[in-house]
Amino acid sequence: MSMALAKKGAVYPSLNGKNVLVTGGATGIGAALVQAFARQGANVAFVDLNDSAGPALAEALEGVRFLRCDLRDLDVLRETVRSFEAEMGSFDILINNAANDDRHQFGEVTPAYWDERMATNLRHQFFTSQMVVPGMKTRGGGAIVNLGSISWHLGLPDLVLYQTAKAAVEGMTRAMARDLGRDNIRVTTIVPGNVETPRQKRWYTAEGEAKILDGQCLKRRIQPSDVAALALFLASEDGALCSGHEYFIDAGWS
Questions:
Q1: Tell me, what DSSP letter sits at residue 157?
Q2: Which domain holds residue 236?
C-alpha cells in the first residue's frame, strides 16, 4: 500500500477489481464517490448530465468511464447501462447518488413538476437498481447504496417534493433489501447532513453556515469525502451484513 493511498483513508481489498456504477458522478458528492472507488482499484463507470466536468474527471482517473445520461429518460438509461456492461461486464456495486434539490414553493407545484421531481430524485434509483440486479445475481451478489437526505428528517422549508422523494428512498431501501437479500444483494441508504459543496453554498449566507454548525454536535462542515468514506465501507465486504437500513453522516445535526 502506498503512503499516498494510506493518507486518504481506509483501504478495502474487497473493492479492488469490482465493477462500480455511480449516478450523478461529475461533481460534488458524486465526484468524491468516483474518486474514492477509483483509489480502491475498482473499475468505475459513472453518468451525469454535466458533459464538461464528467469527461474531465474520467480522464484524470485510471480505470474510470463516463457517459452523459439523462436519468429521467429510462430508455436512454437502459442503453447506457447496457453499453457499460458490454465493455466492463456486470456491476458488483451501484451507488444511486444523482439528485437535484432545487427549492420550490408548495403552492406553485404542478402535476408536471411533481412528476419531473420524482423522476429526478426517486424513480431512477429504483429502475437503475432493476437494470443491474440480474448481473449482480450472476456474480453471486452485490451492493446497492442509495443516497437519501437529512432534509426530511429536519423538515426544512421550500423542499416539499425533494423531501417527499428522499423519504421514499428510505422506504424503498428497506423493501428492496428484503426482496434482494435472498440473492446476497444488500441495499442501504446513506443519509448525508449538509455537505459543503459549491452547489450547497448557493443557499447559505454566513449566518446560515453558522446556524448549521450550531445545530451539529461536531463543529466542522461535512465534506464530500466523508460521505464517500461511508459508501466505501457499505459497499465493501467489511459491510457485508449491513442491509435494509439507513446510515447517517451528519455530524450529529438536529
A1: T
A2: 13-249
